[in-house]
Structures are given as structure tokens and as C-alpha cells.
Amino acid sequence: MHTKTHNIPLSIIVPMLNEAAGIEQTLRALAPMRARGVEVIVADGGSSDCSASIAAALADVVIDAPRGRAKQMNAGAAASRGAVLLFLHADTVLPDQADGLILQALAAQGRAWGRFDVRICGRSRMLPVVAALMNMRSRLTGIATGDQAMFVRRANFFAAGAFPAQPLMEDIELSRRLKARSAPACLAQRVTTSGRRWETKGVWRTIFLMWSLRLRYWFGAGADTLERVYRR
Question: Where does the Glycosyltransferase 2-like domain lie (predicted)?
């Protein structure tokens, strides 16, 4: 399954858990790309709301996957058929023509993977600053986060071992592995993601928490330990 692409240029994999409030908007935005031959796979981690039934009408397939974002994305990748894989959070909307932008960037730059810049929507005036810092940090380090809609050539994804089965920082770890294969294609076009995580817990508190967790991970702290800190 890893090598059978059946002429599908791009598979978009959306991990989902109880996203009934927003999954329709995310998937409807993908309809023009589906019309151009892009495959959309939703990997549901056991939603208890009506997320799965909403998604079923707007995706090529909805699969049941073990709960956990990394596990769900890996399950979606294993079920996909695209030559390039894009991992899209359920509360994130891609820019128009994202499929063409991705394929063009990978081909023109000879890259194995890449990501978009991000825009964070919400009430706080700090969210544009957060987004700008995320985009700048990513360009400087060559590390991407899941909010930036990471995309990767299928062969490179599986050769890098897919997402590690860890509860946090799976995007950072995959970035590290892929960075050894090529620098990322950093697309200036922006995905739009929800600011709910920052606004629910407090923008400044979340900024400090996420930066401190990444720093601790960089210095060797385990993902399980960091997840306990994050959940508190």
C-alpha cells in the first residue's frame, strides 16, 4: 500500500476527534481539490459526536483509527494512495490552489517535504504575533509544526519511519527526520487555523507553555513527560 499511488497526486489526511462544530468547514474547503483528483481521508479516533457522519459526506473515506494524533495520521497515511501526503488539522483551512502550490514547490525545489505559513484566527490581538513568530522560527530552524499543514513525498514519509507513536511533539520529531533528507519547502501562502487553543488557556500562558515544552524536548525531555505537563 505504501507504493501504490494509482495516479493520485496528493492525499490530504485529517485526524479528527469530536470535531462536529468545525469539520464541515474544513472539508468543504477541500471540495475543489477533490474535483481535481486529490484524495481526502479522515482518520477518526473514536468520536462520540456526529463528526464521522458529517465527514463521510465530504471525504473520500473515513477510517477508524487508534486514538492519538500521530497514530491517526499514520493510519490515514497507510490507507492513502497519493504520491504526496498532506497532514491537515481538523480546525485548519488550506489556501486556494494548495494542491498546485505543494506539487509545484516540491518539484521546482527538489525537496522531500514542506509546510505553509500559518494565520491564527481569533479575538486576541496577540494571535497575529504568535503566527508571525511561528513562521519565523520555522524558517530559521527548518522545523515545522502540525498547525502549518506539513506535506511530504510518500516515499520519504515512510522511509523516515512515519510519525513516532508519541503523544506530543510528533510533528517536531518527524521534521527532524525529514530535515536530514532535505530542507523544507517553506510556502509563504498561509493556512488559517483556529486560535481556540490559545484563547481557551490564555494566549500568553500558551505561548510560554509551548515554547518551554519545545525547549525541554530539544534538550532531551521525553514526550510522555511533556504531555503530562501540557495536560495540567
Answer: 11-130
Q: What's the Cα-to-Cα distance from 140 to each of 43, 125, 133, 217, rounded to whole Å? A: 31, 24, 10, 18
Query: CA angle, 228 as apex, 222 and 231 as ends, to 5°?
Result: 135
At 197-216, the pLDDT tens digits run 777 777 778 777 777 777 77
List of residues 6+ apart from 43 with CB closer than 8 A: 13, 14, 15, 16, 62, 63, 65, 72, 73, 75, 76, 79
DSSP the chain: --S--TT--EEEEEEESS-TTTHHHHHHTTHHHHHTT-EEEEEES--SSSHHHHHHTTSSEEEE--SSHHHHHHHHHHH---SEEEE--TTEEPPTTHHHHHHHHHHHHT-SEEEEEEEEESS-TTHHHHHHHHHHHHHHH----GGG--EEEHHHHHHTTSS-S-SS-HHHHHHHHHHTT---EEEEEEEEEE-HHHHHH-HHHHHHHHHHHHHHHHTT--HHHHHHHHH-
pTM of the model: 0.89
Domain 10-196 in CATH: superfamily? Spore Coat Polysaccharide Biosynthesis Protein SpsA; Chain A (3.90.550.10)
Residue-range domain boundaries for the chain: 10-196
